[in-house]
Amino acid sequence: MFQQENDMIMERFLLSMERIRQIELEETVAEPFRDYFNKTAGFIVMIGEYHKFLEEGKQRTASIEELKEWNHKLYDDILPGHYDTSYANPQYAESRLSEEYGQILAYLYKEIRGDIVFVQEHRLSDVTILNELLIEIYNRFEEEKPEIESVKEIIYWFVSDYTDHTVSFRVREGLDPSLSFAVDIIKNHDLNDLRYLYYFGEYISDSERKVAEYLNSLSEDKVRLMADTYTQGYQKGFKVMGRDLSKKRTVQIRYELGFERMIKFAIENFEKMGLEVILCRAAVWAVNTNAGRKAGYFSKSPNRQYDYDHRYDNALFLNKAFKDRKSTVLKVAYESCKELAEGFAGPAVIETFGREGFQPLNKPEANRLDSKQEKLALEMSNETSRIVNQYVPGDETSFTIIAFPVPEIGDDFEEIFDETIAINTLDYETYKGLQQTIIDTLDQSEYVEVSGKGKNKTRLTVALHSLKNPEKETNFENCVADVNIPLGEVFTSPKLTGTKGVLFVSTVYIADFQFKDLTMKFENGMITDYSCSNFEDPEEGKSLIKQVILKNHQTLPMGEFAIGTNTTAYSMAQKFNILDKLPILIVEKMGPHFAVGDTCYSWSEDSPVYNPNGKEIIARDNEVSLLRKEDVSKAYFSCHTDITIPYSELDKIEAVSADGTRVLIIDNGRFVLKGTETLNLPLTDFE
């Protein structure tokens, strides 16, 4: 696939590898930097040996024990047991190399660790340019310790100059099905032989092996059911949104390794729909990564603290000139892939759940964005969204998301997995009717009041849009297992004016972090304050919320209000005591939830959406998203994060009409609206 490109760069690759081998043994740089360069060169020499192992075809004939050994060697120094003395750890790098140089050299080593996947995919250009970068910086240290600014300048111009390569390829690999590295592994190998897991180049833990083993133990009918639910949900999404799937040619699957047997059937299903599958790896280069987000395929992180420490490495090169440079390259890249972009239907995502919540250590040595860079990062995110929407219009694509447990959820993994399959395949027609009953009541309301019980301090008033023609219009979407699986919610984009109060939840799992006593205050639909009890220092908690939930915005609007109806999922959570381990995708169906950020209809507000009963959902905008008609840069935040109050913490949801009439939807955490009482049946075991 990269043969021509590799042939062109082969001489540079071989020369750089020869020089790196010399650096591993040289003593021309003074300590403490000599140790850093020797060890970094040693890692690259090991990469050279791994490349030879791959080129000679030995990976395909090696035993699983030999593949495990290679995998461990490649990831060994960032595993929790060794990370404290790894130069990838900015804390250790700074302690050894000084405050001045530690951050930047830890970043450099982290980028070089991308060689693992570059050689696995035979991308020798990426390896070569990193080799040459290390050699250039090493040469500066050979003369005498250089000024830190000169090292930063080398890094800056390297990142900036090579965006033509790194950013452009990232765009292409997300759109081009001919880059079929991962698809070929799944299609062409015996998935009962778990050696295939090591062909991806990702870190392979017990989690990936156990998931793959478990899926291999299931009947073909059950695995096909999983794949069918997933792909049919994708297809239904286009139908519900009134979009033409027949015009599309590709779909991108995003998932965590271990689910290949299901993915293989999903590929078959998508191909029957006329869609080629794209499987691109989660971003490797820092210039393409986003803090706390992974888009593509990936494995369990070898060390979540390592990921956290490097989440803001772009602080080393982010300035206005770079922002403008990246936006220009991005636009050129999409223009060159214009035809591929036109055929792209959107992502189909498989999430996982079950791991313990991650409690990060905030290291002062790690890179972080200053206030000016935070603003630039947000501007760049908005510019990226506008460019992407120009070539892949949001009103022409769709998506789907489904979730399954991983073995870390505990001894009941297999039983939980089976119950998750059952939850993902609940009856569409039953829930459609029940949820329509709730919507019919809500549509007569001016606002909704939501209150928590016990220690839950939630007291929220949610303002609803006015319906000009109630016979043909509705505020709430009847969500029944299309883009969001499992089914079980009615949702709307509330009016911001008049939406106010306090949102509280004792524990919620968001983007790998378990937040405790999360509190948010709203005024006219905008967040005015927030806190959590994750840290002794309240400011650390605010910082984590700002990073993970607000995505570094100063405030966000309430983009969604919903009522979850999937009491069966809640029953499972209570039965196995896993409520705090479930993903928001499932948790949002288990009580009222509130999303902060964009509405559910961002970038496609002008496209009509209808419920199964034919009524048009008119609540697709709010006062912020409407700003797109004047200045699109003020309308979107490029984030949408759901926060759910579980039934156990919920007192009332009450619909209030303009004349003051009040109708209870939920009372004391139970559905009381006539016609919805059957939703309480799965909850009876826990009363």
- Provide the number of structural domains: 3
Q: What is the typical, i.e. mean, pLDDT?
A: 94
Radius of gyration using CA atoms only: 26 Å
Helix content percent band: 40-55%
Category by helix and strand content: alpha+beta
Tell me about this structure.
By secondary structure, the protein is an alpha+beta fold. The chain folds into 3 domains: 3-161; 181-401, no CATH class; 428-686, no CATH class. The strands form 4 sheets. The chain has an 8-stranded antiparallel β-sheet with strand order 13-12-11-7-6-18-19-20, with helices on one face. Strands 1, 2, 3, 4 and 5 form a 5-stranded parallel β-sheet that branches. It has a 5-stranded antiparallel β-sheet with strand order 9-10-14-15-17. Helix 18 links the parallel strand 4 (344-353) and strand 5. The chain is globular, with a radius of gyration of 26 Å. It starts with a helix and ends in a 16-residue tail after the last strand. The model has no long low-confidence stretch (mean pLDDT 94).
